[in-house]
Design goal:
The protein has about 475 residues and is of the alpha/beta class. It is built from 11 helices and 21 strands. It folds into 2 domains: about 280 residues, Rossmann fold; about 180 residues, Elongation Factor Tu (Ef-tu), domain 3. Helix 1 crosses helix 9. It is globular and about 65 Å long. Bound molecules: guanosine-5'-triphosphate and magnesium ion.
Length: about 475
């Protein structure tokens, strides 16, 4: 796989109440970009990110699912790599959601267009605020009976205030939902239900023209508000041209003055391309974060800070580890600065110990594939998400957030809920930094294209004990 420059990477957490369609949405996005040959479905156990046997059986996400979509929005030559972090919505697994959301630079908060904002919607909103990441709402299930754009917007306004602003309008309702009006470009994007997720771009239907104009003006007003130069232009011209509206929307979203609202039917693959282009055009790249930092080991409390930049020395942030009796420790991490080379020996700040990083691979659900940089000296940079098999303990943390995640994870180990009685928490019986062992419960095949035979993870003794506790 191509090494992407930092400006062409988006790290996006997919969060929301349970059952709002997050995992289905990720599968639709992957099918739309051609990463999968057919549209994976949660209901059929064929989604990309719910690949664990438990997840397939329960038809719900239990832990972090990683995938990536390579997408070039119209009018942009180069592709952008969108790393998708599919996170559980069930309150039982919400600690997992929070611990991995830390690695995202922006979030899509998925809403059921029939129910509006729900309990977990507020919870994940608070996490986004805590981690200071921009966000957008996705009204999903738009094809559902009694789904309503108007009621969903009212619900979002009631709970989150007026910053929720539609950047799209639905075309057709409930079973007839078949596209969106793009309120930035002022065009209709028409989709074929169950199709390839790519729209035909047409003029706005006459019956929607007035509503679209009104919603467009509202959007323009909200974008201009809080930006003096745009406000001046707005007063002068009475509107903003698209070339100013897009960067204006981007700035407003990054400053969290606006939370854009988009809409989809994940199951029918409607709205997918529009959503991907929005993420590429509006969401920030990792380099737009000011700095990454951590408190140095050794108890002195000195803070080490680094710019999120390729030219800086290498630093990584591990946001999840899996352990498997056969495949060894699998480490999900984010490159925060510098360029990582395969077989690099790094220093684990928390343990002041050297770590050898081997078998750097990219993650697509349960598929692990070698990146082009393989074992040669050419490294992978760009603040990307990758996984590696490290022989020793998981490398630790370089920024405050990681430090925070570590503390949260170690809490989990000692929490009474982890005694094995909880439905799913028994899946995480050990401290993360000792190697969480959901791998023990994962019989799924990790395929490696790094020159090794595909591997099947099998159940370890921990898994059997945990399963005993579950039943
Ligand atoms: N009709 C319809 N069904 C949908 C849509 N999106 C998801 N579903 C169905 O809703 C169910 C739940 O979808 P998931 O993608 O697992 O929901 P989730 O938000 O990932 O759920 P958790 O992982 O438990 O938080 C599945 O059966 C999907 O097929 C949609 O837009 N329309
Ligand atoms: Mg899910």
């Amino acid at each position: 796989m191509k090494a992407y420059a930092t400006k062409d990477i988006r790290n996006v957490g997919i969060v929301g109440h349970g059952g709002t369609g997050k995992t289905q949405l990720v599968s639709s996005l992957l099918f739309t970009v051609g990463a999968t040959q057919r549209l994976g479905k949660v209901a059929e156990g064929s989604s990309t990110t719910d690949w664990d046997e438990e997840e397939i059986g329960r038809k719900m996400s239990i832990q972090t699912g990683l995938a990536y979509a390579e997408w070039a929005p119209p009018g942009r030559g180069d592709k952008v790599k969108i790393n998708l972090i599919d996170l559980p919505g069930s309150i039982t697994f919400i600690n997992e959601t929070k611990a991995s959301l830390v690695a995202a630079d922006a979030a899509l908060i998925v809403i059921d267009a029939h129910s509006g904002a729900q309990v977990t919607t507020e919870r994940v909103w608070d996490y986004c605020t805590e981690f200071d990441i921009p966000r957008a709402f996705v009204l999903n299930w738009m094809d559902r009976e009694l789904s309503s754009f108007r009621r969903s917007m009212e619900s979002l306004h009631d709970v989150f205030g007026r910053s929720a602003v539609a950047v799209q309008l639905p075309i057709g309702e409930e079973k007839d939902f078949h596209g969106v009006v793009d309120l930035v470009a002022m065009k209709a994007n028409l989709y074929k239900p169950g199709g390839d997720g790519k729209p035909s771009i047409e003029e706005i239907p006459a019956d929607l023209a007035a509503a679209a104009q009104e919603a467009h003006e509202k959007l323009v007003e909200m974008v201009a508000e809080g930006d003096d130069a745009l406000m001046e232009e707005f007063f002068e011209k009475g509107t903003l041209p698209v070339e100013d509206l897009v960067p204006g929307l981007r700035r407003a979203a990054l400053e969290k003055r606006i939370v854009p609202v988009l809409m989809t039917s994940a199951l029918l693959n409607i709205g997918s391309a529009s959503l991907l282009s929005f993420v590429a055009d509006v969401f920030p790249h990792p380099g737009e974060r000011v700095a990454a930092g951590t408190t140095q080991a050794g108890g002195k409390g000195d803070r080490a800070e680094r710019k999120v930049d390729d030219a800086q020395p290498l630093s990584l942030f591990v946001f999840k580890t899996l352990a498997d009796p056969f495949a060894g420790r699998i480490t999900y991490y984010k490159v925060m600065s510098g360029v990582l080379k395969n077989d690099a020996t790094l220093t684990n700040l928390n343990h002041s110990a050297p770590e050898r990083f081997q078998h750097i691979q990219v993650v697509q659900g349960k598929q692990l594939s070698g990146n082009n940089h393989g074992r040669d000296a050419r490294g992978q940079g760009g603040h990307d998400f990758l996984q590696a098999r490290a022989h020793s303990r998981a490398i630790d943390h370089i920024c405050d957030r990681a430090e925070d995640a570590r503390r949260r994870r170690s809490h989990r180990g000692g929490h009474p809920q982890n005694s094995g009685r909880g439905r799913g928490l028994a899946l995480f019986p050990r401290r993360a930094d000792q190697g969480i062992s959901p791998g023990g419960l994962r019989p799924a095949a990790y395929r490696s294209s790094c020159g090794e035979a595909p591997q099947t993870l099998s159940r370890g003794p921990d898994a059997q004990a945990a399963e005993g506790a579950l039943s």
